[in-house]
Amino acid sequence: MPLRESETLELKRSTAELEEALKSVCAMLNKQGRGEIVFGVEDNGYIIGQDIGKKTLREISKAISDHIEPKIYPKIDACEIDGKSCIRVSFAGLHAPYFSRNQAYMRTADENRHLSARELEALFLKKNEQALRWDDKPCADAALGDLDTAGIRKFTLKAGLVFDTVPNVLAKLGLVKDGKPLNTAILLFGKEPKRFCEGAYLRCAVFAGTGSSTIIDRQEHEGNLFALIEEAQSYVRKNTHLGMRVEGLERIDIPEINPEALREAVLNAFCHRDYRLPDSVNVAVFSDRVEIRSPGLLYGGLTLKRIVKERVSERRNDLLAQMLHRIHFVERWGRGIELILRLEPRTTFKEVGRQFITVFWRKEAAGERTSEKISDTGSEDARKASGPDRGEDVVKTWSKRGVAVDETEERIIRQIIGKPRIRILEICENLKTPRRTIEDGVARLKAKGILRRIGPDKGGRWEVIKP
Prior knowledge:
Layout: E1 9-12, H1 18-31, E2 34-39, H2 56-67, E3 68-69, E4 75-81, E5 84-92, E6 99-100, E7 105-108, E8 111-114, H3 117-127, H4 129-132, H5 149-158, H6 166-173, E9 176-177, E10 180-181, H7 183-189, E11 201-207, E12 215-222, H8 225-238, E13 242-247, E14 250-255, H9 259-271, E15 281-285, E16 289-295, H10 304-309, H11 318-326, H12 336-343, E17 348-352, E18 355-361, H13 380-400, H14 407-418, H15 424-431, H16 435-447, E19 451-454, E20 461-464
């Protein structure tokens, strides 16, 4: 059977091609961790033989020793193939990345190509993966008493395990070492996890318009991972639009962003983030999009193109992912990106600075209707036309009664008359005014008897009272 070049075999006519052979050694080590070079064979597999002098094998050994880093110790033998003298060099190494004359190469099929900076970084990370792991390391300053027993008991039930004692359960889950809880245990069950892990933190904000110059609302949360995941989803739900459709006599609410896609993005942000970075997961709500920002770039050599096209994933925090999989929070096969794109096809992903960002483009901003909207006071056109005029009439009438209405209150009245089911957040966005200012204005209008709320916060409406 003729020899054929592959990812672990390189054929060379003679040692005159030793320089190219060194590149192949480097490339095969970086790709497969092993390989062979055979001198005396054409690249098409035709055996031509190789002259072997007293110093030939020694010269090959010296070239590899001098120019391949880290050091390897190949097996170099003279051999016969089809009755002709050849040289076979076999080698292996577990310490990638390897370099040939200070250059790194990667084997692709039967070719050697230069490694990009991103690929080289990925190899260094892989080499030091265990040393750089965070989730399976003991939390130096924590003790078992810093964990919430009720939270562990609840997790145990969801995971289908039997709860007896905290130490036993943690041992079964692999969350304790030498009596110390691991970082994953603190993150999941800590009473005050932020004392030990800066990453147990969530920042949320709503911005006026599409930029970040004006903040309408801002909230910060700390707690265990489960609490932060729920807070992040809740914040997006509260600060995006809710549509509806009617099926028979039943009203069906339709969130602006698919809940499953949102949940997956939030889970990914907390599960795959780099907890060595002293930063929080951030949720940013703009008028045209919602961004879920996670500290830490893509892991394991992944690129934006690969995660979208090939729908693959790499786990930075494998132990943490295992724990979430036990209670069916995450898929073992890493199908999160596929799920997000199936439910929200316009979703995009980007890397900025040291953050990975999932961007959900809002349907309302794009002119899409999330539902059949409930009519408040006739047609949409009629409401828009009547709002400003009726607002002015209301202000004048109340002024005549001796009730003063300031500029902010008048602007709120105009917004509400134009759209009685408008939400506080939408008023903030329309007027480009901080949430606290709008909420204070609404409170004053209620106190003056000019405004009242009919129905619940979700699904109710405003009524402007004209004396």
